[in-house]
Write a structure and sequence with these properties.
The complex is a heterodimer of chains A (about 450) and B (about 525). Chain A has about 450 residues and is an alpha+beta fold. In chain A, about 35% of the residues lie in helices and about 20% in strands. The two termini of chain A are about 20 Å apart. In chain B, the strands form five sheets. In chain B, strands 1, 2, 11, 12, 13, 14 and 20 form a seven-stranded mixed beta sheet that branches. Chain B is built from 17 helices and 20 strands. Among the domains of chain B are: about 5-40 and about 60-80 and about 240-325 and about 470-525, 3-Layer(bba) Sandwich (FAD/NAD(P)-binding domain); about 125-190 and about 200-225, no CATH class. The chains are: A alpha+beta (about 450), B alpha/beta (about 525). At the A-B interface, α6 and α13 of A face α6 and α13 of B.
Chain lengths: ~450, ~525
């Protein structure tokens, strides 16, 4: 069997790339190391254009849009519940802080405008600021013009807010600790930074992209499972593939278990950039090799499941009672320890109850499950956690690792110095938390 | 009564620079200083008989060479002596040193890590280049990206061209410097922890950030822009202390005909129909002028000297949001004799340079952690110099003065600053030094401890911030001090700002003062 291209990894981005290429008439093989599809929910905005292009609605795609989208316990008892309806959230906030309630509608609107700017940037290749190509320059000028048409306030907000810390941003608007805590958690989501670190306001907006105004948690879906049901590509499971290259050109992959080699002129990897590239002879490209070695992809999250007798009454339960709580949780990670009091979020999707725990750096995790169980008032054996050694986003979403700097500066357009080898995973623009966006951009770059 | 062409409020170095440039252009200029002497935060004072101290700022490097030239400062008494080395004592008794002689520094680094010694030169070249690349921005009036005025569009285009001209690799390095933490940035180059700690320390000076906080790599670069006699990255010490810098600028201003009045605090700027017409002194006197320029920080310039109803509400909100969080303190000591450090025993050439108390990244980061939650650092980061070793005139024969710059001391200390807390802070500083130089405490004759609250009380700098506003990315360039008002003009006609709270910011550069004077002259006084 001859393939036009081999895609490594059957996650959302790998499958999206595979299907776009298949639709363009290519014969595609996808190689995936897991035997079965991961049952965990996909967290993040699935762009409409991907759903449409690949007919995912007909493949059983379900997008969970919980309402209320977050529930947070209050110190005095009871909970704060924020709804998809801005007026209803405003009323809920008014019970804890009238001043914050007065700010909420405008905050939601301003953040939505900025989220919209990011959405536009995310569904195309990152701007190539070094290019002298007239078309690329026109495209960049077009983006600039688009932003300026959104008004003076938006230009100022972009310049001011993106480099800010989420703590500074939220302190500008709100006074309530619990509100700032649950919003601030999204600013440090999957990042080895505390809420007082610059750039966390950007991370907050990144994860707001794709959500309506007033909703600050990414959507949850079964997009990877839906993609697995779309026909048109061949998927081989239970095999780990490594890229083969000769004379600076990709020639195919080798399956590590069987030793079988499969030839193809095009190899596209959705695996983390470093894992894909370092086994190859990239030392032939010293600057590139150094940049790949410098990708920051520090693991800080443990994900897992919660075994409960009854499904919980909430859809998203957030334990991050204040910005200081998050900051202290991060302090532990700075010195290589799991947070003594971690940020914990429970998510109920499709009958599964999943849990996100942060900060959990690589190392010894003694007592972590017990602490999480205690925070959630359950028994330790009800909590199953898998700490991630590396960033689940294949590269942290810090300002020095986005747009034309992702995955490494100067190589942001899904290519690598090895001819015929492309990247299409979360490690590339626009990064994690947007299943399918990088995959689609990569497929378009390849085609 | 005389009506001046311009009144400059505040006789700090930026106010004096503005005054000197205006006077040089044949304008009648009056500088009004609240304190008995000029200099603001760049003053030399004899705190204890015979011992002279540069009370606050203590080294010179960033002063713009064009100002030294234009105002002929050496003729007016400016004499800069080089600061030759930096020694970092480590907790295990070892040390890391950087000497004036490049080869010696390389050998020293080699002792710690051959790999880092190799990387050091390339790193130095990159930083030198990046500082060169950013420097034109320092002498440029920031264009407003929200405006469609031809001059702003032209300015933006010039900026885009400038940056694209750097080429890919350097452009990427610039993005990294603008966005990364100094620890992460240095991690890409070096492996020796004490080297990274000492280098990253210049990225935290004057900020309320730790070495692992994004944004500190930019401050690292800011401190690389120093230029003395054309030699990059050379720190120096002014003969007579930093007060001598201010005195020389004042002398230059007077030589051009400017009038400087001390003990003359300004309480209000007079505004009639949206135009500044003069000032009211604290003693009630009114002085009129065609133009009024404030070198005070943005908070005092707009919220104290003016009535808020004289300004657009949105602008007032922006100024209220401008962040100052002072984080630095200073301990000035008169010594009977120089201390000997365990890592490099005895008295020698090391005392003619700086001692950096930054033994590891974690040490500096923990110092920040304390401040983050409202406490001063129990074991602070310190930059120590002995000015009397470089300029013997600073202390009586055989005695010495020691200047300790300390971080972190938060302005908003839990429970507030009191005399007892100030003393406890001084103890933390002295005891930490003692741990690296046993016997040091017994040599102290007099001790002055300065907290951010003291800096605010004495110099007026809001919250004791030494840069008159934090050098954070969202407070730089066209956002300094507020979007739309980063070009030295203000919403009040004839009222200008020229202090470090405007582009390009603090560090005894004088660039703000010079750019403001250019703008005022262009507008026609």
């Amino acid at each position: 069997m001859n393939y036009d291209a081999i895609v490594i990894g059957a996650g959302a981005n790998g499958l999206v790339t595979a299907h776009y290429l298949a639709r363009a008439g290519k014969r595609i093989l996808v190689v995936e190391q897991r035997h079965t599809a991961d049952p965990a929910a996909d967290i993040g905005w699935v762009p409409d254009v991907v759903i449409r292009d690949l007919g995912l609605a007909g493949a059983g795609l379900r997008i969970d849009e919980p309402d209320p989208w977050v529930t947070a316990p209050l110190e005095a008892g009871g909970t704060l519940e924020l709804s998809r309806n801005i007026a209803r959230s405003t009323e809920a906030i008014r019970r804890i802080s009238p001043a914050d309630a007065a700010m909420w509608p405008e905050f939601c609107q301003r953040m939505r405008t900025l989220g919209g700017v990011l959405e536009r940037l995310y569904l195309v290749s990152p701007p190539d600021i070094e290019s002298n190509d007239a078309r690329e320059l026109a495209r960049i000028a077009g983006l600039g013009l688009h932003v300026r048409r959104l008004g003076k306030q938006t230009v100022i907000d972009l310049a001011r807010i993106l480099p800010m810390s989420i703590a500074e941003l939220l302190d500008d608007w709100f006074e309530s600790d619990v509100l700032k805590g649950l919003l601030g958690a999204l600013g440090v989501w999957h990042l080895k930074q505390g809420p007082r670190s610059g750039g966390t306001a950007f991370n907050f907006l990144h994860h707001h992209a794709g959500s309506p105004a007033g909703v600050f948690r990414p959507a949850r879906s079964n997009v990877t499972q839906a993609l697995s049901k779309v026909s048109g590509v061949e998927v081989r499971r239970g095999e780990r593939a490594a890229v083969l290259a000769k004379n600076g050109k990709a020639t195919g992959v080798v399956l590590q278990k069987s030793g079988e080699t499969i030839q193809a002129p095009l190899v596209i990897s959705s695996a983390p950039p470093r894992a894909t590239l370092q086994p190859l002879a990239i030392e032939l490209y010293p600057d590139f090799a150094r940049a790949v070695g410098n990708i920051k992809a520090r693991g800080v999250v443990a994900r897992g499941t919660l075994a409960l007798e009854q499904p919980p009454g909430y859809s998203t339960f957030c334990i991050a009672p204040s910005l200081d709580y998050l900051e202290r949780a991060y302090d532990d990670a700075k010195y290589g320890r799991d947070s003594a009091a971690p940020y914990v979020e429970v998510q109920r999707t499709d009958g599964r109850v999943e849990v996100h725990v942060q900060f959990v750096p690589p190392g010894n995790h003694d007592g972590l499950a017990e602490r999480v169980a205690q925070i959630l008032k359950v028994l330790p054996n009800q909590v199953a956690l898998q700490p991630a050694e590396e960033s689940l986003y294949h590269g942290e979403l810090t300002l020095d690792q986005i747009l034309f700097m992702r995955p490494v500066p100067g190589w942001s357009r899904y290519r690598t110095p090895i001819e015929g080898l492309y990247l299409c995973g979360s490690g590339t623009h626009p990064g994690g938390g947007i299943p399918g966006a990088a995959g689609r951009n990569a497929a378009r770059a390849i085609l | 009564m005389k009506r001046y062409d311009a009144i400059v409020i505040g006789g700090g170095h930026n106010g004096l620079v503005t005054a000197a440039y205006l006077a040089r252009a044949k304008k009648s200029v009056l500088v009004l200083e609240r304190r008995p002497r000029v200099g603001g935060a760049a003053v030399t004072e004899e705190i204890f008989p015979g011992f002279k101290f540069t009370m606050f700022s203590y080294v010179v490097s960033l002063l713009r060479p064009e100002i030294i030239r234009d105002l002929d400062l050496p003729r007016h008494g400016l004499h800069i002596l080089p600061l030759e080395s930096t020694v970092t004592p480590m907790e295990n008794g070892n040390y890391l040193a950087a000497w004036a002689d490049h080869d010696e520094t390389r050998r020293e680094l080699y002792r710690h890590s051959p790999r880092d010694a190799e990387a050091y030169d390339e790193y130095g070249r990159l930083m030198h280049f990046m500082a060169q690349a950013v420097k034109p921005i320092l002498s440029m009036v920031p264009p407003d990206p929200t405006s469609f005025a031809p001059s702003d569009l032209a300015g933006l285009l010039k900026l885009v061209k400038h940056f694209r001209g750097l080429g890919g690799e350097r452009l990427h390095a610039l993005v990294k410097l603008m966005t990364m933490s100094s620890a992460d940035f240095l991690d890409e180059w070096f492996e020796t922890d004490v080297l990274k700690a000492t280098k990253s320390a210049s990225g935290i000076i004057g900020t309320f950030l730790g070495p692992r906080s994004p944004g500190t790599a930019y401050v690292l670069l800011h401190h690389y822009m120093g230029e003395l006699d054309g030699v990059f990255r050379a720190w120096g010490f002014a003969k007579g202390g930093t007060g001598a810098v201010s005195e020389s600028i004042a002398a230059a201003a007077r030589s051009f005909g400017a009038e400087i009045r001390c003990n003359a605090g300004v309480s209000k700027v007079l505004v009639r129909n949206g135009h500044a017409t003069g000032v009211v002194l604290e003693n009630g006197d009114e002085i009129t002028a065609r133009t009024v320029v404030s070198s005070l920080d943005p908070r005092r310039t707009f919220l104290q000297l003016l009535e808020t109803d004289e300004l657009p509400a949105e602008f007032v909100a922006d100024i209220k949001r401008f962040k100052f969080r002072g984080s630095s303190g200073k301990v000035n000591l008169a010594l009977d004799a120089l201390p000997s450090f365990t890592c490099m025993p005895g008295i020698g050439r090391q005392h003619r340079g700086a001692f950096s108390i930054s033994p590891s990244l974690d040490y500096v980061e923990r110092a920040y952690d304390d401040a983050k939650y409202g406490e001063f650092s129990r074991r602070p980061y310190m930059d120590i110099v002995f000015p009397s070793m470089i300029d013997p005139g600073m202390a009586p024969p055989g005695k010495h003065v020691m200047s300790i710059f300390v971080q972190y001391a938060p302005y908003k200390l839990n429970g507030g600053w009191t005399d007892a807390r100030r003393e406890a802070f001084g103890d933390a500083v002295v005891n930490t030094v003692e741990s690296f130089a046993p016997g040091f405490k017994s040599k102290i004759l007099h001790q002055q401890v300065i907290t951010p609250l003291d800096i605010e009380k004495i110099t007026g700098l809001s919250e004791g911030n030494i840069f008159a506003g934090e050098l954070a990315l969202h407070q730089l360039f066209f956002l300094r001090p507020a979007p739309g008002w980063a070009k030295f003009a203000t919403p009040v006609h004839g009222f200008y700002q020229c202090g470090s709270g405007t582009h390009p910011g603090g560090g005894i550069m004088g660039a703000s003062g010079r750019l403001a004077a250019m703008r005022i002259l262009k507008d026609g006084v």
